[in-house]
């Protein structure tokens, strides 16, 4: 059937868009943008037709939600940082078929989910920013999945990720990439101090924990990382409580996953938060993956 060709944890910092324009921040996010372009290059080489994004800027309070409209277009301004992302045009095709396959599979596994194809629901910038640099020519169909899950359990999000993998491999006729779009630590600069932290992490403690996490990822020590994930998400203000990361790891085998990551854009600070672009090699799903 279908194939999961590429999986990655990616940044979506709004300063990427800001860095396109003349001014004091022009070019400051070239490394992150080039990382997205490299991931796009790999996806095209692998024949990817659809990108699924676990988007931590889409908040939900109940169930798991899949935005799989037939097409998305508009002009986007961030309500969070309207001076960073304003009047950004976008247009991408959707994939209702795969979206409903994911929803059906998750529900069959007991993870309550809803796929929305007949909807006016728009995309959030956790999806729109990476698509700007990977999909300007509308090469890929796009599905966005809620990754800011306020009242959900991280292990259940891992099971949702497994449902995404099973839907792709068992029921979909195509090739898919999946991105967890969110930060590592996510404490913003205090009000009035944002310029001071434009290229920094908020606190040395947060940066040191992030860097240790990256070392665990590079070593493929997923058992240790998953064991610390709930506390890490809590104490380091993980974006969206790091449900995007839990979904990504469920997709790959949870604590049975063993592959080391490939760092595409090295860890960097942005507005107080810790960021990275890292490809997680897709390996055969272990028979005893999270169930």
From TrEMBL:
Gene3D superfamilies: LigB-like (3.40.830.10)
Molecular function, one GO term: 3,4-dihydroxyphenylacetate 2,3-dioxygenase activity
Pfam families for this protein: LigB
Keywords, comma-separated and alphabetical: Oxidoreductase
Keyword hit for Oxidoreductase: yes
Domain of life: Bacteria
Domain Extradiol ring-cleavage dioxygenase class III enzyme subunit B residue range list: 7-280
Cross-referenced InterPro entries: HPCD, Xdiol_dOase_suB
EC number assigned by the record: 1.13.11.15
Keyword Isomerase part of the UniProt annotation: no
PANTHER family: 4,5-DOPA DIOXYGENASE EXTRADIOL-LIKE PROTEIN, 4-HYDROXYPHENYLACETATE CATABOLISM PROTEIN
Name of the protein: 3,4-dihydroxyphenylacetate 2,3-dioxygenase
Species assigned in the record: Variovorax humicola
Lineage: Bacteria, Pseudomonadati, Pseudomonadota, Betaproteobacteria, Burkholderiales
């Amino acid at each position: 059937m279908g194939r999961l060709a590429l999986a990655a944890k990616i940044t979506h910092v709004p300063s990427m868009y800001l860095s396109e324009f003349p001014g004091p921040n022009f070019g400051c996010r070239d490394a992150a943008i080039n990382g997205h372009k490299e991931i796009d290059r790999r996806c095209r080489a692998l024949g990817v037709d659809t990108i699924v994004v676990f988007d931590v800027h889409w908040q939900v309070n109940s169930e798991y939600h899949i935005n799989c409209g037939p097409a998305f277009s508009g002009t986007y301004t961030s309500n969070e940082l309207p001076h960073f992302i304003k009047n950004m045009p976008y247009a991408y095709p959707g994939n209702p078929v795969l979206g409903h396959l994911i929803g059906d599979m998750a529900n069959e596994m007991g993870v309550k989910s809803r796929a929305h194809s007949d909807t006016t629901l728009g995309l959030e910038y956790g999806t729109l920013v990476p698509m700007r640099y990977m999909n300007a020519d509308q090469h890929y169909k796009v599905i966005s999945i809620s990754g800011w899950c306020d009242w959900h359990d991280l292990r259940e999000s891992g099971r949702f990720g497994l449902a995404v993998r099973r839907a792709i491999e068992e029921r979909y006729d195509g090739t898919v990439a999946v991105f967890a779009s969110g930060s590592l630590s996510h404490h913003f600069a205090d009000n009035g101090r944002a310029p001071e932290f434009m290229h920094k992490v908020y606190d040395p403690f947060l940066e040191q924990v992030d860097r240790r996490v990256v070392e665990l990822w590079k070593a493929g020590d997923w058992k240790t990382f998953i064991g610390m994930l709930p506390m890490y998400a809590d104490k380091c203000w993980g974006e969206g409580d790091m449900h995007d990361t839990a979904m990504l790891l469920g997709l790959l085998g949870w604590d049975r996953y063993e592959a080391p990551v490939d760092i595409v854009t090295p860890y960097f600070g942005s507005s107080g938060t810790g960021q990275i672009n890292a490809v997680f090699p897709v390996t055969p799903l272990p028979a005893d993956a999270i169930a």
